[in-house]
Model the fold of this input.
Amino acid sequence: MSLKLQMARLRANHSAALSGAEIAAVSHAATILGRRLIEVDDAAGIRTFVLGWSDGNEPAVGPEGITARQLSAIPVLTFACCLRLCWPDPATNPYPGERTRVADVIRLATAIGADDRHVKGALRSELRAAGLIQLHVPELSLGPAVAAWAPAQVEALRRFHTTLPALEAANG
Amino acid sequence: MRRIAALIAPVAQDAGAVADDEAVVEIAAAVCEAYGHEDAVDGLTKAEILERIDGGFPAADVESRLDLFIRLELLRPILDKKHQSRYVLNPAGVVGLLVFERIGERGGVDELLHLLDRTRRLIESGAATEATVASALERLRGLFALFANEVARLVAVAPLDELLTERRFHDRADLITQVASLNGVVTDQFPSLDRPAYRVVVEAQRYVSAVQDLVARVLDEGGEARDFGVLAPEDYLTAAITASVADLASVFATIVFDPPRPWLDAGAIVEVVETYRPRRTIRVRPPEPAGTPVGDPLALLEEEQARLMQRRALKAEQHLQGQEATQVSSILRGTGWPGAATTLADFLALDADVAQPYRLELDDAVIVDSAGPVTFVPRGTLERATTMPEIAARPERELSAPETVE
Done:
């Protein structure tokens, strides 16, 4: 498969399997484009990668930059709950993180005030389609899109880790 | 400024005659503007000029330029006596400023067009002699040759950004028409000058050919660079209106589209967490009974959704009565209000679900019956496909993702 096609495959899917010399070639091409190749798991001996942004090369999304589709409040809030539950220790990397129960995510999000059905809808469609979570019912884990975050994004979330919704607060 | 320096070169005393800073032209324009009012009839002092420019430029720079303008007589004392503090503006300087602006913005091809137009008018009015026409034709031929050579040189060696700048200077769609028109009047009224007029046409064609080469290189290199700046916004609008669908589609023939992936960064997450407030009172879920096996809440939701779709499919079958298609208008009128709205929503949901074999085709026409059970009834057909679409076998993640472009 040509290098261009490999890059297209990585962009079109959340992740793609690469092997041998492909890895170095695609990694080199990604670096030139301001992106970086990140290995996400090694299931069944297949090396799988995602394409992330390098620090400083992320597109400027917002009023003064480009317009991109963004998630609405409930999916973002639900994902914040997933992130907090799957990433309990901010000293580590958020991906792959730990698995958490779907029921706990729903309980945490609804405790904040999100509608039960909307939270379930976000888990079932938006967050899963965006690659932000992976469902392993009755559990879930963070998805490959989290692995693709630039280091600066992860660092920013580390600083705000304590502000993410915590299950203790929901129980309290 | 390079273009203006070339313009000034014939009368310049030395190589430093033209300033490098484009701000000097703006200061000159501001000084000219200061005189553009009736109360300037008695001239202005330096202080008044500075006041009218109103701090747009550093005062020291303006004063330095004013001294230069006085020495070069762009600003002249109102009386030809010593110790005059009021100055008037020399109109020749204002005209010069206009010429600089036009040369800077339009390149100089306008002057060539003016010469073409002026020569044709002179001949048509009968005021031109054979000698003046011969001289004008030779000058035109020389100018066309100069421009053709310059554009050919640019096409061969200039970088893309310089070509983009030059391209707008040579965008003259009516040039060949004007040359042909002049050639026609010369042939009619001065047959002896037919050959010089023909040589003007030849050089003009060579110039137009060079401009076409320039445009071709701009489009080739700009296209490869995916640089949308190669064309003016007006060109894109024209293409969108006049080009065929196939031509427009060909632009994206080799473009890879990403699936929709919403942008989510740390800032968005933190903002939502800190600002989210529920719109209604929070219902606190009762504590989970200890030891109760945990079911899958998402699976329950999916089962409920599947049951709903099954009910909708049964409803569609009830109305189809074994046929492959049926008119929805009669169904909706038969169900009355608000049953018609519920039924139509069910049909639309079936149509939207690619896993279902039902398709709803609605016409533009609407049946209006103010006295009937339903005032506005859309016309259309509910159909059952004989085979299930292949897309139904695709994973749900793909099905739920509308297409967007990154």
About this structure: Chain B touches chain A at residues 256-270, 272-274, 276-278, 280, 282-285, 288, 294-299, 301-302, 397, 400-401, 404, 406 (CB under 8 Å). The radius of gyration of chain B is 38 Å. Residues 75 and 89 of chain B are 5 Å apart (CA to CA).
